[in-house]
Amino acid sequence: MLPDLDLRLVRYFTVVAEQLNFARAADELRVAQPSLSRQIQRLENVLGVRLLERTTQGSRLTAAGAAFMPQAQRLLRDAERAIQAAVAAAPAHTITIGYAEDLVVTSAVRHLRHRFPDAHVRTRHLAAQDAAALLDQRVDALVTRTPLPIPAENLQVTVLYDEARVLLVSASHPFAGKAAVTAEDIAAEPFVGCTGMGTEWTTFWRLEPRPDSEPARLGPTLAETYQDKLEAIADGTAIAVVPAGDRRHTLRPGLTTVALDGVEPCQVVVAVRAADPNPLVPAFVRSARDLMQPEATQGG
Questions:
Q1: Alpha helix stretches (DSSP H) within 100-188
Q2: Would the pTM count as exceeding 0.85?
């Protein structure tokens, strides 16, 4: 039986094969370099062959990789054509709305369904690193936070509201109970390392560049999931900066947040593909802009 191929891994491979450099490929894909290396290894494990070899000058294709490359490119083109054919054949009154992490889109979705009772309005929950679903046309609109983990070219981005960033620490941490801290106060603290996110995203949430121009220190845990991140913080080995409106940590005892002074907020936005002909897309953007507000202005 042939192995099942994850098209995301195939796409990662083609970018690395084109660049022949993991660092440049990671920047283009907006993922962390260690995560990219693991994804290529996953693909190689699925195929049962070595595709790339690292050298002192960069990387090079093995014989298997050179044979796989044109087929991989053709596979991605065929997949894109299949998606476009499906989208073109779908009824005009269909929209899929993606929303990332803890964000709630109920009010805007309900309003859209009320305005267009004959439309098929679907929702799809996504992890932050799955934002490429907008580019791949798996969703037609994406409600997420900045910085966007995907290229913003050919996207229309509408800001819904600003959201403060706060420090998340263990309840036993010396900062717990303080009214507020600054970026200078936490410059020596280790942060949780997270996989699968690009440089722009990680530097923003680690408050880089730091006052001393040094990169943020990282704790011993490399978190692949949100729960891994909370575990590291609760254990007291690291801290994290999180959106003030993300209340998922409150479900776990032993964690608390501290206000951050002098730190610019993030923004909650709705992103759509520019010039999308679907009339439901701008209608949803209007609904989101009018009805999605920070929790504090919604009476809790």
A1: 106-115
A2: no
